Design the sequence.
C-alpha cells in the first residue's frame, strides 16, 4: 500500500485525502487531541485452479500462513509509519 503526498506546482494538492488528513491531524493536535483511525482491510489469499475455480491459498494445508503473513503486514506498515495496534486473522470457510 502506498499513500503518497500529492503535490501540484510544488504545493500540497488540497483535494488529496492524505493532504487533508495531515491538515486535520495538525489542527486536532493544536487543540490537544490525537487523531486515531481504525482500518479493516479485508482480502483473501487464493489460488486459481486449472478449472478456473479458486481455493484458499494454504500451501501446508494447516492454516499457519496467517501468522507469518500478518507479521509481515505489521512489520512493513510500521516501516512506513503506520503502527498497528491490533492485527488478527479471521478464518474463511471454503
Sequence:
Amino acid at each position: 500500500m502506498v499513500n503518497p503526498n500529492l503535490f501540484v506546482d510544488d504545493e500540497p494538492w488540497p483535494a488529496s485525502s492524505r493532504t487533508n488528513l495531515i491538515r486535520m491531524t495538525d489542527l486536532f493536535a493544536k487543540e490537544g487531541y490525537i487523531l486515531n483511525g481504525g482500518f479493516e482491510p479485508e482480502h483473501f489469499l487464493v489460488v486459481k485452479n486449472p478449472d478456473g475455480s479458486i481455493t484458499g491459498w494454504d500451501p501446508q494445508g494447516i492454516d499457519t500462513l496467517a501468522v507469518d503473513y500478518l507479521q509481515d503486514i505489521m512489520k512493513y506498515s510500521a516501516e512506513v509509519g503506520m503502527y498497528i495496534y491490533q492485527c488478527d486473522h479471521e478464518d474463511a470457510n471454503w
